[in-house]
Amino acid sequence: MEPRLVGPGPYRATRLWNEIIELFRAGMPLRKHRCRFKSYERCFKASEAVDCLHELLGSNQNFGPEVTRDQTVKLLKKFLKNHVIEDIKGRWGKEDFEDDGHLYRFPPSSPLKSYPKKPSCGKEVIKFPDWNESKAGPSQEHIPVKSVVMNSEMWYKRHSIAIGEVPACKLVFHRELTPTNIEEIWKSMTLSRLQKVLGLDSLDEVLDTKLVNSKHIVQNVYNVNKQGIVTLDDKSKELPHWILSAMKCLANWPSCSDLKQPTYSGFERDVFKTIVDYFGQMKEPLLTFHFFDIFVSVLGLLQKPSKAVEALQISCLLLPPENRKRLQLLVRMMARISLNQDLPPLSESVRTRSLMVQAFSRCILCSKDEIDLDELLAAKLVSFLMDNYQEILTVPSALKSSIEDHVVHLQRVQIKYAGADSDATLPPPSFCQQIATGEFEYQRATDSQEPLAALLEKIVMNKEISVKDKKKKLKQFQKSYPEVYRVRFPSPETEAMLFPEKTKRTPPILMWAFKKPFQPFHRTRSFRM
Known about the structure:
By secondary structure, this protein is mainly alpha-helical. It has helices at residues 12-27, 46-59, 69-81, 152-159, 179-198, 214-222, 241-251, 267-280, 292-298, 305-317, 321-339, 352-364, 374-392, 397-410, 437-461, 467-480, 482-488, 492-496, and strands spanning 31-35, 38-45, 86-87, 103-105, 169-172, 414-417.
């Protein structure tokens, strides 16, 4: 089974979980092992599982070569807890997996997670606010305009262009936009652009748009200093001065402007530990729990760096200003430390860059509910942030210009014709994007295989039908959909694990079986002496 790229969209963490399990079950060598004078068939050592899964994750484009062996062990702990694997005595449910010689095996039951119902295929268009209609109450004074209708002959005489009847028109004078109106425009156009970059029909499955604060977007765009760092109106939400001094010390090592030169060995490690402890005690990650799914979806675009950068630029605008500022300062410090050759090693066994990812990934991105792959996903995102933080943590200039132009357009006097239902302020209609034939075939195969795989799992896990009926249904499924069946059962051995053979008892040997059978009496000729 070849690994495939899991793109952005809903339930990406679940799709990645099932992808890794299928690859691991298909690629893990199984053989006979001995333990305490007993032999066990079709099992593997814990260290062998770590070697196999680590190599698999490193070569998978959804995770990459930066996955460490320690992260692989933690993932195998979750495999044991979720019954993806079990020890040779059938025990599971605890995270007591270690990188040693203990024996494990795959259980016959399926560990794959079922897919939720797919979202509606209809494309959602984010509605833009319309403030052309006057508010209730006393209306503003407008200059009365009389409707004029001209025939083509009169219009041709004036302009030498015969265009037929000219509809009635009227002047629509702009109404002053309030700060709230402008904030709503920013929110609508920002979310619309994010949806387009991600290539999704709707943001509903990855983002609750009601939780997006329009004030945060405007503050993150306009309240910045010369370095592009967000400035906060509420100074109580600023980082403590001693943490800022510690971060500046390591980021600018060995030029520590706020601190005196160190007087003992290991000073830089103590400063680093202080920073790690401060960010580790936060109750919520910097990217917040609400935006976990949207940032996980962005990870599906890492094969297209320019798209991923733009998606992260827009996503980071949604953060509360204090979170965005802390993220800017923290990631900039991490990147500078990783590239600083003058800074002594902060760990004896881990490289500086890997140490930065391990130490701060969880305080940047994690899920409120325990997600099986959240640590690997966070490490992937933090690595990309460190490499591209100067672009990602700045305001996207193209988006800013388009929104500002849109606001200016709304404030101009407009001419509207009678019977014209369309509004020039609305975004242009979206059209289907043409893709290559290979991409079309891949999407068709992927979208059709997911519900079929779910149907196969339902048959496998159904305990209400007999073994005979289950075998019959699986045989029919294999004949109809051989490729989907081959993914679930890559070898005859994996299929045989679903139906373990019962040991047949040998009947006892009866003693009378050894006796000669009864022989009838035969008459013999008598001889006279």
